[in-house]
Design brief:
This protein is an alpha+beta fold. Helix content is 31%, strand content 24%. It comes from Raphanus sativus (Radish).
Length: 381
């Protein structure tokens, strides 16, 4: 199984690019209410057919990492709001969406309906199947799988509830740009069959543009982001049997972990400033009594001994309490036009010979079963 796990797309350079997008503020609205939430949707982790490759022999036998539903709610000054949910699943399901809307109507009335709730999948091929409503999609899972369905509905509903309860004033920033070396055309020979006049209209043979939305809470600062970028969720090959969010699910987890660690390190380096104006400006959340105590600590007593500043332990306690109130960063890597895009940027190779697969047919000796793509982690095995 390590072959498939190591085949996940390398994300370090992508993070640097995404971090740049997060820092650039090109479009701002400060009158929105924004709310973010995240909840587990992993579902059955064993003895369930996996959704994506349509292979009856690909049955789950464990967990690579858990799956989540990540929700973003935005409300404008007129009260209109929209809910976007990104799920670590191959795709959204009409029957799942209908059940989620039914529960939301029971809880919130007409606040959230089919008109303002959108649910999107990241297209991982390593999640449990059996949760869709059409026969063609549940043939390989031998029918409807109630556990898969319930995990999705429960998780999506709870992520929306969390986002609703976290609604706070904030701003939204938008940016876009090219992200290279994160996807290749999975059928370059087919692309070359397009007329040269049509191909000349495009800079690349796949869509390289990433679009990112950044959400900034008026009090806490950046609290989340989601982006759209085209690449298939097939870094884990069809021989994989571990539940996984694949490259986009991994990117979301790593982004959230990076932001949490970055913020923690930044907070530890902060020192209380000695200018009164700065203290007032940076400590608006401290109660008036605590603020006066901080201010008084900078004046010497009549006996010439420095007044005792608020103890470091008390400051740590207050900091921990404020940190507990701060919402966790929610990062979603959403899917877009990924039909012709593979994350296996090193190309496709034959398992038996190690040679590149046939360029025109993606086969090895006439058989496609032996042809597998390789991502940037493959050479590190």
């Amino acid at each position: 199984m390590t072959k498939e796990i190591y085949n996940l797309v390398r994300l370090r350079s992508s993070f640097l690019y995404i971090s740049t997008l997060l820092l650039l503020r090109v479009h701002s609205h400060s009158e929105y209410l924004i709310g973010l939430g995240s909840y587990d949707i992993t579902g059955p982790a064993a003895d369930v057919n996996m959704m994506g490759y349509a292979d009856m022999e690909q049955v789950a036998s464990g967990i690579h990492f858990r799956l989540r539903a990540r929700t973003f709610i935005v409300s404008d000054p007129q009260g209109k709001r929209v809910v976007f949910v990104n799920i670590d699943a191959c795709m959204a399901s009409q029957i799942v969406t209908l059940k989620v809307i039914e529960r939301l109507k029971a809880r919130y009335g007409d606040l959230y309906t089919e008109k303002n709730v959108a649910i999107s999948g990241i297209h991982t091929h390593a999640g449990p199947g059996g949760y869709l409503q059409y026969v063609v999609y549940i043939v390989t899972s031998l029918g409807f799988v109630r556990q898969s369905f319930d995990a999705l509905v429960d998780g999506i509903e709870n992520s929306i509830i969390l986002a609703h309860e976290n609604l706070r004033p904030g701003s939204i920033f938008l940016n876009s740009g090219e992200l290279l070396d994160a996807g290749v055309n999975r059928s370059p020979s087919a692309y070359l069959n397009n007329p040269s006049k049509e191909r000349s209209k495009h800079k690349y043979d796949t869509d390289k543009e990433m679009t990112l939305l950044k959400f900034v809470d008026d009090q806490w600062g950046p609290v989340g982001s989601f982006n759209w970028f085209a690449t298939h969720g097939t870094s884990m090959s069809r021989t994989n049997s571990l539940i996984s969010g694949d490259n986009k699910g991994a990117a979301a987890r790593l982004m959230e972990d990076w932001f949490e660690q970055h913020n923690t390190a930044e907070r530890e380096e902060l020192e209380i400033p000695r200018r009164v104006s700065s203290i007032i400006g940076n400590h608006q959340d401290i109660h008036e009594e605590e603020l006066m105590l901080e201010l008084a600590s900078y004046f010497e007593s009549q006996l010439g001994r420095p007044a005792t500043r608020v103890s470091s332990s008390a400051r740590r306690v207050r900091s921990a309490m404020r940190k507990a109130d701060k919402p966790g960063f929610v990062s979603a890597f959403c899917q877009t036009n990924c039909g012709d895009v593979s994350p296996n940027v090193l190309g496709a190779f034959c398992l038996d010979t190690g040679l590149p697969c046939d360029f025109n047919h993606s086969t090895c000796g006439g058989r496609n079963e032996l042809c597998y793509g390789r991502g940037p982690g493959y050479t590190k095995i």
